[in-house]
Design brief:
2 domains; single chain; three-stranded antiparallel β-sheet; alpha+beta; about 110 residues
């Protein structure tokens, strides 16, 4: 029984350490230099910005959020103009729905 308790404590410690290491790796890979993104991601209507972001993501092979540059909530997807994206859980109005290549970007306010 004593060995079982020690084994469970050891497993718990390893899980906490591995989860923390993963979180640090994720934060490091997700934090990108925002200043290097083109100004078009920050200018124009929500629709124009969504298109610019989809184009930028496709041309640079970026398959993740690039900083939440549009609206109050933003979702992206890979697979064409009608692929699924993240959606807000509260009532918001869709203000942009754009695609470029296989990337789709939608935004809500």
């Amino acid at each position: 029984m004593k060995y079982l308790t020690q084994l469970l404590i050891l497993i718990a410690i390893l899980l906490v350490l591995s989860t923390d290491a993963h979180a640090k790796r994720y934060r490091r890979s997700y934090s990108t230099n925002v200043q290097s993104w083109p100004a078009s991601l920050y200018q124009g209507t929500d629709q124009q910005r969504a298109y610019a972001e989809a184009k930028y993501m496709h041309e640079n092979r970026i398959y993740r959020h690039v900083g939440g540059t549009i609206g109050l909530y933003e979702g992206w997807g890979y697979g064409g103009p009608s692929c699924a994206t993240c959606t807000p859980h509260v009532g918001m109005t869709l203000t942009a729905d754009a695609h470029y290549g296989n990337i789709r970007v939608r935004a809500w306010r």
